[in-house]
Design goal:
By secondary structure, the protein is an alpha/beta fold. About 35% of the residues lie in helices and about 20% in strands. The protein has 18 helices and 18 strands. α1 crosses α2, α7 crosses α17 and α16 packs parallel to α18.
């Protein structure tokens, strides 16, 4: 006697169906696991056996062989428990659990010793994978039901106990729970608003240009300049997530186990991830063994804030380079390759010096320490950022009335600029100016002698490199999009040079 149940192996945001087959043959009672079943096959088998007993059924007193068709090395512990238990129950009692009832069904969830179904992370990615493989129904733990219901194009149902799944297999159509009605989308407010910031006119403009073109930027200033407050307001300037982007953000949050409990609105807000300078390379990239995304992937379609970026470890800085260039995190170990998207916008902040001085003239740092810190400011991430702004707290404005734009007003211009860029580069597969290759930028925007003169002068003086000139052109294209122009003018190029920082940190 034999039976088959189906689960999903999650690898990043994609997945693969995993067949769990149970075969009962005459012989002395024994259990064998055929095929790879992850790093802890005995722990998986113990959970399945305890849950079957907790459901009130006898474990087969015969030779039992459990076979997994594909490596179950997803790193998400317990996601295959329900499929394994159902396969054993169906093999032991085919009359009560008919095979046609299991056709097209995917079973996901971890089992407690008493048979209760516990939630697991990565459910949304698993449900989307099941849908892409043509499955029509997915049964998940009840606490994962709201998350699973976010996946369009597939039916999901929830169960709190193995007993409920067994009842459904036996014909009890009402044994499973259905998703609750979707809650209303949250209001546009992100909790912090650019309108709350006084002054900082140069930094506000830099944030707008960075958001419109997808350009990474650095903000440098005294400790009291409020750079962190500026960085936290950058997600609110980005356009609203599309449905597909929202699903990706939610799927990554599910893998990271950071989704909030309770009913979920259909659309997610832009993620904001702040990284301390002590973060390791693994904290940034994630783990292939446990399929846990790092900070780069968790900031996908959002903002990654690198606080005190010059103090990042060299290995962490090396870990940043390829993902920021390619928009993808790739982590590998001996047996597993994890790929996750990281189309993230990086804002790196750092104090001007190491002492708590409020302006440069009040610095009390030893000359050697000050020199070393400034060298780090100049060198770290210099080839990955397009915009660098030094903030002077004396320019933040006084206590009187101040004309300040809200995040919604700036976001309106940013959205229009991104729409123009996506229309221009769509046939080439790009949506923001920051991602467009230099050769394509130069081909689309051939500068006249007068327009190129500021770039040539800056290059001759050693303030920018040729690569830096290409990045200045990309920023100039974004400035042109913000003002509604067809291409960068001489004024746009000069403004982009100032935002670039003339090669200085």
């Amino acid at each position: 006697m034999g039976a088959t149940a189906w689960s999903v192996i999650v690898r990043g945001l994609s997945g693969q169906l995993c067949e769990v087959a149970a075969e009962i043959t005459p012989g002395l009672p024994s259990i064998s696991v055929s095929g790879p079943c992850g790093d802890q096959p005995q722990a998986w088998l113990d959970r399945v056996r305890a849950a079957v007993a907790g459901e009130g059924r006898e474990w087969p007193q015969a030779r039992l062989t459990l076979t997994l068709s594909t490596r179950a090395d997803s790193g998400i512990e317990g996601i295959h428990d329900l499929a394994g238990a159902v396969a054993v129950l169906a093999a032991a009692d085919p009359a009560t659990f008919p095979a046609p009832r299991l056709a097209g069904v995917v079973l996901l969830g971890r089992l407690a010793p008493d048979g209760a179904l516990r939630p697991v992370r990565g459910i949304l990615a698993a449900v989307l994978a099941a849908r892409d493989h043509g499955r029509t129904l997915v049964i998940v733990p009840g606490l994962n039901l709201a998350e699973a219901a976010l996946a369009p194009g597939i039916t999901v149902a929830g169960a709190d106990h193995l007993r409920a799944v067994a009842a459904w297999l036996g014909g009890g159509d009402r044994a499973l729970s259905v998703p609750a009605a979707a809650v209303a989308a949250p209001p546009e407010s992100t909790g912090v608003d650019l309108g709350e910031i006084r002054g900082h006119y140069r930094a506000r403009w830099a944030l707008e240009v960075a958001a419109a073109g997808g350009h990474h930027l650095r903000l440098i200033g005294p400790p009291a300049a409020g750079l962190g407050a500026l960085a936290r307001r950058l997600p609110g300037l980005l356009p609203r997530l599309t449905e597909n982007e929202s699903l990706q953000v939610r799927a990554i949050a599910s893998l990271a186990a950071t989704l909030p409990e309770g009913p979920l609105p259909p659309n997610a807000s832009r993620p904001y991830v702040e990284v301390h300078h002590s973060a390791s390379a693994r904290a940034l990239l994630g783990s292939a063994t446990s399929t846990r995304p790092g900070a780069l992937a968790r900031a996908h379609h959002g903002v990654l804030h690198l606080a005190s970026y010059p103090d990042l470890h060299e290995r962490a800085l090396e870990a940043l380079r390829a993902p920021l260039e390619e928009g993808e995190v790739v982590v590998a170990n001996r047996d597993t390759l994890l790929r996750l998207p990281c189309e993230t916008l990086v804002v790196a902040t750092a104090p001007e010096c190491l002492c708590p001085a409020t302006h440069q003239g009040a610095c009390t740092c030893p000359p050697a320490a000050e020199r070393g810190h400034r060298q780090r400011l100049h060198r770290v991430l210099a080839d990955r950022v397009d915009i660098t702004v030094r903030e002077n707290p004396d320019e933040r404005g006084g206590f009187g009335a101040d004309s300040r734009e809200t995040s919604a007003e700036v976001r309106h211009r940013v959205t229009a600029a991104r729409t123009a860029a996506a229309r221009r580069w769509g046939e080439h597969g790009y949506t923001t100016n920051a991602r467009v290759p230099a050769a394509l930028l130069r081909q689309r925007f051939p500068l006249s002698s007068a327009e190129a003169a500021p770039l040539e002068a800056a290059r001759r003086e050693g303030r920018i490199t040729r690569r830096g000139g290409d990045r200045v052109l990309a920023v100039a294209a974004t400035i042109a999009d913000l003002r509604g122009g067809e291409g960068p003018s001489t004024h746009d190029v000069v403004e982009a040079l100032h935002l670039h920082g003339f090669g200085r940190p």
